[in-house]
């Protein structure tokens, strides 16, 4: 049976990841601080700290993969039919060389990338809240699709 203090610390570890909306990299800094200073006090705090950090690292990795796929596709679509000489010498190549057919691919790729990223961030927000509620009740929560970087 976990003490109320341990449950609260584990819950704050999950909730501290929401600081990313106010402080850059707060979703890594604050859970790491809470976890590293309290992991020796309780196995419950240690477990939840690892879960919160693994989830944040997984979300970061998924975002990088999404960007690595989407950005080159968008750039290739933009520059597909534009000669290099036009890009270098002509300042208004976008107006002259982008047609509706080419823009359709750009729009589709951009919309899919944006929807995937927004969906991922919305799911992240609700999963953090759900994990916090489960943790405050003394239950161990495993985030879905999380890569175990810290074991």
Automatic annotation (TrEMBL):
It comes from Flavobacterium nackdongense. The lineage of its organism: Bacteria, Pseudomonadati, Bacteroidota, Flavobacteriia, Flavobacteriales. Its main location: membrane. InterPro entries: MamF_MmsF. It is a multi-pass membrane protein. The keyword Hydrolase does not apply. Keywords: Membrane, Transmembrane, Transmembrane helix. This is DUF4870 domain-containing protein. The chain crosses the membrane at residues 18-38, 59-83, 103-130. It is found in: Membrane.
């Amino acid at each position: 049976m976990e003490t109320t203090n341990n449950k609260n610390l584990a819950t704050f570890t999950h909730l501290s990841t929401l600081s990313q909306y106010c402080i850059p990299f707060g979703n890594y800094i604050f859970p790491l601080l809470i976890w590293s200073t309290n992991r020796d006090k309780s196995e419950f705090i240690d477990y939840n700290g690892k879960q919160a950090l693994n989830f944040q690292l997984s979300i970061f990795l998924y975002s990088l993969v999404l960007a690595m796929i989407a950005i080159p596709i968008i750039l290739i679509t933009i520059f597909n039919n534009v000669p290099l000489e036009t890009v270098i010498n002509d300042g208004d190549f976008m107006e002259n060389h982008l047609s509706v057919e080419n823009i359709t691919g750009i729009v589709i790729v951009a919309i899919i990338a944006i929807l995937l990223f927004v969906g991922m961030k919305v799911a992240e927000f609700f999963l953090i809240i759900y994990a916090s509620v489960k943790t405050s009740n003394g239950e161990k929560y495993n985030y879905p699709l999380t890569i175990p970087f810290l074991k």
